[in-house]
Amino acid sequence: MDYANDPELNGKYLGTITKDFAAVSDTLQEASSQIRKRDISKYPVFIFARQEVPLGSLLVNADEAGLEWHVFASYLELLVQQGIVGAEGIEAFQQTYKDADEFCCLFVVDEEFTNFVFIPYPED
């Protein structure tokens, strides 16, 4: 799996993901900080899915927040345990992972598109 931003991320996804990301970016940035501060993982990952998925812990319920995407908090090691990232892909993932203070690592899960995407946090 290619862990860099996917050029095929078309406008349909980019628009709705960006809109929902903007609404929850502060929450994700704080969760990322806590995951790293508590030494849970150096690689927080937030799953964006239109339906509930058995990955990570539900952080933002789309229905309750008026969003299109549910957001689940996870991290690299858990995604390896769940078989999302294969053991042979760990090093590539770590090398591709961007500065977690500046970028949010999203794992977008939908019928037509499933991939990792890095989105910069909005500047204050």
Can you give a write-up of this model?
The chain has 124 residues and is of the alpha+beta class. It is built from 4 helices and 5 strands. A 5-stranded mixed beta sheet has the order 2-3-1-4-5. The termini are far apart.
Compose a concise summary of this entry.
The protein has 124 residues and is an alpha+beta fold. The chain contains four helices and five strands; from the N terminus they run H-E-E-H-E-H-H-E-E.
Spans of 5+ residues with little confidence (pLDDT < 50)?
Answer: 1-7
Q: What is the overall shape?
A: globular
- Name the strands of the widest sheet in spatial order: 2-3-1-4-5
Cα separation of the termini: 33 Å
Count of runs of 4 or more consecutive helical residues: 4
Averaged pLDDT, please? 90
Approximately how much helix is present in the residues? 25-40%
**What does the main sheet amount to?**
5 strands, mixed
Q: Please report the total strand number as a whole number.
A: 5
Q: In terms of structural class, how would the helical and strand content be classed? A: alpha+beta
